[in-house]
Design a protein that fits this description.
It is built from 9 helices and 4 strands; from the N terminus they run βαβαββααααααα. The protein has 216 residues and is an alpha+beta fold. The protein has a 4-stranded mixed sheet, with helices on one face. A hairpin with a 5-residue loop joins β3 (58-60) and β4. The protein starts with 5 loop residues before the first strand and ends with a helix.
Length: 216
Amino acid sequence: MSSQPYRLYYDRMTSAFVPHVMLEEMGVDYELVHIDTGVDAHETEEFRAINPNMLIPTLGLPDGRTFGENGAQLVMLGDLHPESGMVPRIDDEDRPAFLQWLFAIATTGHTTIRRYSYPEEYSTRCDAQDSVREAAYRQLTRFYSVLDGVISGEPWFLPRGFGPLDIYTILILIPFEGDALADILDTRPSLARLHAATHARPTVERLWNFYFGADA
């Protein structure tokens, strides 16, 4: 593999947090490229050439290829660096469960938090936005209960230890804080343990503050 660093195209208040933590935890060389979504820098022709879907995060590999989607980035990074142990190898007994829940989090979890947080993007009727948000909340809380039932590590998602599923799981809890988050975690003990342990990791704490802190 080329000795060039990875390139993470990011902006704060985005899910670039997820691959960023992965890069840090694996200890590989990378550089950050800030794409200011506040001025629609992700919608330029220059950025379209890097990611035709024009979404953040986008990851650049050492060989120059670039691609998006959190789940794809996590799998690719783990497969390129099997020595990190972050992603189960293809013949590992954890691989099917890892892939199932990674893509469930990316689809059911991640897309639903967008419906909850930005209901105006999912209806052309202003009077329907509250209903969109309410339905998204019901779907999220059902999904959180499913996750609570399948978390098999202590406290991590998988018994193998801390990994991408833990990083991505705390991201899909981001719409909730304070009493609302406590209400969700109080009846989901495995999810609560994962949430606390993941946030306690120094890398996670530092990057969470970078992406979502008061100055983000």
